[in-house]
Structures are given as C-alpha cells and as structure tokens.
Amino acid sequence: MPPPRTADMEHVFFPPLSRVAVCGGTHGNEMSGVYMLRELKKRHIEQDGPVSLITVLSNPRAVESCRRYIDKDLNRCFTSQMLRQVEKNLGPLTDDTPYELKRAHELNAQLGPKGSQEAVDLLCDIHNTTSNMGLCLILYSADWIPLHILKHIQSKMTSTPVRAIFIDLPASESYSLESVGKHGLTLEVGPQPNGVLRADIYNLVKEAVELTFEFVQKFNAGHTFEGGEVEAYTMEDSVDYPRDPTTGEITASVHSELQVRHDRQRALARWSPGLIFHSPLLQDRDFKLLKPGDPIFKRFSGETVTYKGEELYPFFINECAYYEKKIAFVLGEKVKLTLPPISVQKD
C-alpha cells in the first residue's frame, strides 16, 4: 500500500509545549551536551515567555569521571518495565543499587513520570558519536512533533546534512531518556572522540538546539507547520566484528597506512586506545549505500571480508561505545515518512 499523501492527512492539533527539558551528559564522556548545558545556564535561559526550560546534567558522576557510565548504560534504563522494576526494587537506596538505576528513578521523577500528563512536553537529549554521522535526530515511532522539528531544522540548516534515525518501538518499550517526555528526540552528533570537545561539532549542536527553541516558540504562538515528507533511516540489523571462534577476540582491522593518512582516525585512536578501524571503503562512510561484495573489514592475516547481505545503509560505523555491545555498525533502510500539518490546540 502506498504511503498516505499529505493532502489526505487531517490537520493535527497538540497542546502547547510549555515545559521543555534539555539534557546532556547522559553518557559522561560525550562533551557537547555537557558544555551546551553550561552555556544555557550562563545565559540564564530558564523562562522564555510562556515556555519553561529545564536543563539537566543526566549522569553527573559519569561526567565527573569522564566515563560513559559508572555501573550501567543510563540510556538503556527507561523502558516502562525497567522503571517499574526500579520503583519496586529500589526501596531504601543501598550501595549495591547500580548508580544509573538510581539516576533513572530520579530523572523519571523529575522529568516524567513517563507516560503521564505530568511529564515535560518536550525532552531533547544531546549525545555524541565517534562515527562520522554528522547531525542526526533519533526518534521513536510516528510522533509528529519531533518529526516536524526535524523538518524545521532541515529547512534552516545549510552547513551540514540533517538526518533522522527512526526506531519503531511503542512508547513503553522505548529505552532511552528522551522517551520520558510527552515528545522526545535525541541529537546525535559526530564524529567526536570521547572526552573531547570539537568546535565544529559543538556549533552543530548549538544551532540545532536554537532551531528547536525556534520551533517551540513558533508552535506555541499559533504557527501552522505544513505537512510534507521527510527521509529517515530505520534500524534493521547490526553487524559484529569478525572474531576468533574460540577466544571471541576481534580478528580484523585496517591497513596501517590508513591510520597515518587520516587525522580524524589518528585522533580517535589516541583517545580510544585499542580502537580497530574498518576497511577504507567502509570507515567514515555512514549513510552510504552498502552493497553485496563491498569490502567491510580487513583481517589481521591480510584477507578482505566482504559484505554478503542485502543493500542497506550503514551507520554508527566503528562507534567506540559499541565495542562492548559487539556492534561494528548498524544497518538501516531509507524510508520516507509523510507528515500531516500540525499546530497548537487553542482553548
């Protein structure tokens, strides 16, 4: 069945976006969000007309230690089931309770509760990736508000492509922090090494945040955002590194001269010891179509490993944080999403 045409979609009305939360430091070594929060606080942006802005350093202990997390990945702790388990199991907090589970409980109480009318109207969580993904918005399900924010940012930003990754999960199974808000989105921006602040990446984050604020102001003022289409990449599968079947150790890397040629890869290697690079035909080629037969890995023994799946788009290529998850890259399909016109619901 073909997707609906914009002309066939009814105008959708939403309540005002009165409470907006901007979060950073969910992963403590992703620095753009940490510094963006500091800048917002310096500018004393807390109340902008009818909009109340909440800034939250999500994982302060991990930020202080400049680590992704202390005990557990905080950005996987927000499914409804996990939050219920947290509520039931925490009881009196003990030293044995994983720190990130405590923070999930606290953040859900502060910004939610998830799925309730008390939750913030819009939650924007800022992340960095070591992959060459530029500026991406990660969105759950067909939520028209963040999809229209994507469309608005795409129409205004000319300095870089603005892409979307679409995770088709119901709200109850959505696992990351932005799912606590009534509407939510993640800004994922890279490449940036862990623990480092790059000016070009920070400026992309700053522009995207300011355009999000601009959207909120226009929406609340009664502006109608017309319908249309946006492209997005769905998450279909992931590919692990080649491994030794006995030891489980990674058995592939890239030619050594490539590490010398590419300044960005040298920086990643310096800040992430042990990082193993992909074949030059895959490394840094996020969102470029991957076809059967394309080289993807180079074994330490010299052989080239080629791709054997269907034509899909790789992203999060060689993401440092995904080594522990046994993910070399994620594969997605490019789709078009049709948006209805939206505007604020008037009394």
Describe the structure.
It is found in: Apical cell membrane; Cytoplasm. This protein is an alpha/beta fold. The protein has helices at residues 31-42, 60-65, 80-90, 99-111, 144-156, 199-220, 256-261, 263-271; strands at 12-14, 19-24, 47-48, 51-57, 122-128, 134-140, 162-167, 183-190, 228-239, 252-253, 295-299, 304-306, 313-315, 329-339, 342-344. It has two domains: 12-235 and 335-344, Aminopeptidase (3-Layer(aba) Sandwich), CATH 3.40.630.10; 241-311, no CATH class. The protein is built from eight helices and 15 strands. Strand 3 (47-48) and strand 4 form a beta hairpin. The protein is globular, with a radius of gyration of 21 Å. Residues 254-271 and 276-280 have low confidence and may be disordered.
DSSP summary, beta strand count: 15
The separation of the N and C termini measures 37 Å
Sheet with most strands? 10 strands, mixed
Q: What is the architecture of the largest domain at the second tier of CATH?
A: 3-Layer(aba) Sandwich
Protein name: N-acyl-aromatic-L-amino acid amidohydrolase
Keywords: Cell membrane, Cytoplasm, Hydrolase, Membrane, Metal-binding, Zinc
Organism: Takifugu bimaculatus
Enzyme class: hydrolase
Q: What topology does this entry show?
A:
Layout: E1 12-14, E2 19-24, H1 31-42, E3 47-48, E4 51-57, H2 60-65, H3 80-90, H4 99-111, E5 122-128, E6 134-140, H5 144-156, E7 162-167, E8 183-190, H6 199-220, E9 228-239, E10 252-253, H7 256-261, H8 263-271, E11 295-299, E12 304-306, E13 313-315, E14 329-339, E15 342-344
Parallel strand pairs: 1-15, 2-4, 2-5, 5-8, 6-7, 7-9
Antiparallel strand pairs: 3-4, 6-8, 9-14, 10-11, 11-12, 13-14
Helix pairs in contact: 1-6, 3-4, 5-6
EC number: 3.5.1.114
Active site: 188
Membrane topology: Peripheral membrane protein
